Amino acid sequence: MAEKKVTAAASSSPLRNTPSSLRNAPGNVKKAKLPLFEKDNYMWMGIGIVVVAIGMLVMSGGKNPNPNQFDYKLVYSTTRITIAPILILAGLMIEIYAIFKRPKTQQ
Hints:
- By secondary structure, this protein is an all-alpha fold.
- Helices cover 54% and strands 0% of the residues.
- It contains five helices and no strands.
- The longest helix is centred in the C-terminal third of the chain and has 23 residues, at 78-100.
């Protein structure tokens, strides 16, 4: 009935059970990680968000002057059913570009 308690410090160290010669070997040196996105990527992401937001605002459209009447031209206007979805899709394409854009390499 004796149970062993595992402490967080013992379980979090993956190198605890390895010989000291392997821990300090030249091939086992950790390299510094680069950031996932750079400033340019974030700029493109911001542009994409703005384009999607503009598309949503255009799709919401205006207010019907008389709420008791259905205005076909106001609800099904070209702006709402054509231009707004194109803006939203363009914004999403910009977001995809921003995610997949590789950082510039310095030489």
